[in-house]
Write a structure and sequence with these properties.
This protein is α+β, with helices and mostly antiparallel strands. The protein is built from 3 helices and 4 strands. A hairpin with a 2-residue loop joins strand 2 and strand 3. The longest helix has 20 residues. InterPro entries: RelE/ParE_toxin (IPR007712), RelE/ParE_toxin_dom_sf (IPR035093). Pfam families: ParE_toxin. Keywords: Toxin-antitoxin system.
Length: about 110
């Protein structure tokens, strides 16, 4: 019997990351590459929904938030998420080469 999928929400910070990623990939590599990347992201999200504990705590966030944030890699992208109850909250979708501490600092400063 298959494990039921958790619900999920793409938060605004993740939506911005996906939009930026799409713009960059389409501009640099074309629509076919974006379609492949998008399909891989969707597969990864489905995996998270089925196995939410499969991700690991990002090194940059160890010790914060009771280690409730996790990440998984999807190609050259990291997906940062948090599970609360029966819902996976997608916080960030970002290229692995981006400086995560600087990005998180900019997000926090925007929220203040």
């Amino acid at each position: 019997m298959p494990v039921p999928l958790l619900k999920y929400r793409v938060l605004p910070t993740a939506r911005i990351g996906i939009d930026e990623l799409r713009s960059y990939i389409v501009r640099t590599f074309g629509w076919d590459t974006w379609r492949q990347t998008s399909a891989r992201l969707q597969e990864t999200i489905a995996h998270i929904r089925q196995f939410p504990e499969s991700g690991h705590v990002p090194v940059e966030l160890e010790g914060f938030f009771e280690d409730s944030f996790r990440q998984v890699l999807s190609g050259n992208n990291r997906i940062l998420y948090q599970v609360r109850g029966d819902t996976v909250f997608l916080h960030l979708v970002v290229d692995v080469r981006r400086d995560l501490p600087s990005l998180l600092q900019r997000i926090v400063l925007r929220l203040m």
